[in-house]
Design a protein that fits this description.
Number of domains: 2
Order of helices and strands: HHHH
Oligomer: single chain
Structural class: mainly alpha
Shape: extended
Radius of gyration: 16 Å
Largest sheet: none
Amino acid sequence: MVESIYLALSKGTDKQIYFVTDNNARAAKEFLTKLLATKNIIPPDKNMPSTIAKPLAGLVEGVWKLFGIKSTPPLSRFELSFVNMA
Protein backbone atom coordinates (compact mmCIF):
# COMPACT_ATOMS: atom_id res chain seq x y z
CA MET A 1 0.00 0.00 0.00
CA VAL A 2 2.77 2.45 0.88
CA GLU A 3 4.51 1.72 -2.41
CA SER A 4 1.35 2.56 -4.36
CA ILE A 5 1.04 5.91 -2.61
CA TYR A 6 4.70 6.65 -3.27
CA LEU A 7 4.35 5.77 -6.97
CA ALA A 8 1.20 7.86 -7.36
CA LEU A 9 2.91 10.86 -5.78
CA SER A 10 6.25 10.50 -7.55
CA LYS A 11 5.24 9.23 -11.00
CA GLY A 12 1.54 9.99 -11.24
CA THR A 13 -0.01 12.95 -12.98
CA ASP A 14 -2.43 15.55 -11.68
CA LYS A 15 -6.15 14.70 -11.57
CA GLN A 16 -5.69 10.99 -12.31
CA ILE A 17 -7.27 8.04 -10.55
CA TYR A 18 -5.23 4.96 -9.68
CA PHE A 19 -6.36 1.49 -8.72
CA VAL A 20 -4.25 -0.32 -6.16
CA THR A 21 -4.11 -4.01 -7.07
CA ASP A 22 -1.99 -7.04 -6.41
CA ASN A 23 0.13 -6.34 -9.51
CA ASN A 24 -2.66 -7.53 -11.79
CA ALA A 25 -3.45 -4.91 -14.45
CA ARG A 26 -7.18 -4.46 -15.01
CA ALA A 27 -9.23 -1.88 -16.90
CA ALA A 28 -11.59 0.29 -14.85
CA LYS A 29 -14.57 -1.00 -16.84
CA GLU A 30 -13.70 -4.62 -16.02
CA PHE A 31 -13.23 -3.81 -12.34
CA LEU A 32 -16.50 -1.90 -12.06
CA THR A 33 -18.46 -4.52 -14.00
CA LYS A 34 -17.32 -7.22 -11.58
CA LEU A 35 -17.99 -4.99 -8.59
CA LEU A 36 -21.53 -4.20 -9.76
CA ALA A 37 -22.15 -7.90 -10.45
CA THR A 38 -21.76 -8.58 -6.72
CA LYS A 39 -25.02 -6.61 -6.29
CA ASN A 40 -26.68 -8.16 -9.37
CA ILE A 41 -26.36 -4.92 -11.33
CA ILE A 42 -25.55 -5.13 -15.02
CA PRO A 43 -24.10 -1.88 -16.40
CA PRO A 44 -25.36 -0.66 -19.77
CA ASP A 45 -23.29 -1.66 -22.79
CA LYS A 46 -24.01 1.51 -24.75
CA ASN A 47 -21.67 4.50 -24.94
CA MET A 48 -22.20 8.20 -25.52
CA PRO A 49 -19.54 10.12 -27.47
CA SER A 50 -17.45 12.33 -25.19
CA THR A 51 -18.12 15.28 -27.52
CA ILE A 52 -21.74 15.07 -26.35
CA ALA A 53 -21.23 13.79 -22.80
CA LYS A 54 -18.76 16.48 -21.63
CA PRO A 55 -20.89 19.51 -22.56
CA LEU A 56 -23.99 17.73 -21.26
CA ALA A 57 -22.30 17.07 -17.91
CA GLY A 58 -21.33 20.74 -17.67
CA LEU A 59 -24.90 21.75 -18.47
CA VAL A 60 -26.34 19.39 -15.85
CA GLU A 61 -23.91 20.70 -13.21
CA GLY A 62 -24.84 24.26 -14.18
CA VAL A 63 -28.57 23.56 -13.76
CA TRP A 64 -27.95 22.00 -10.33
CA LYS A 65 -25.91 25.04 -9.29
CA LEU A 66 -28.35 27.58 -10.77
CA PHE A 67 -31.33 26.11 -8.93
CA GLY A 68 -29.38 25.31 -5.77
CA ILE A 69 -30.25 21.63 -5.94
CA LYS A 70 -28.58 19.90 -3.01
CA SER A 71 -28.58 16.36 -4.42
CA THR A 72 -25.73 15.05 -6.54
CA PRO A 73 -26.28 15.63 -10.27
CA PRO A 74 -26.96 12.45 -12.27
CA LEU A 75 -23.99 13.30 -14.52
CA SER A 76 -20.83 15.23 -13.66
CA ARG A 77 -17.52 16.06 -15.29
CA PHE A 78 -15.71 14.24 -12.48
CA GLU A 79 -17.61 11.03 -13.17
CA LEU A 80 -16.84 11.34 -16.87
CA SER A 81 -13.13 11.81 -16.18
CA PHE A 82 -13.20 8.59 -14.18
CA VAL A 83 -15.14 6.62 -16.77
CA ASN A 84 -13.04 7.89 -19.67
CA MET A 85 -9.87 6.43 -18.19
CA ALA A 86 -11.04 2.90 -19.04
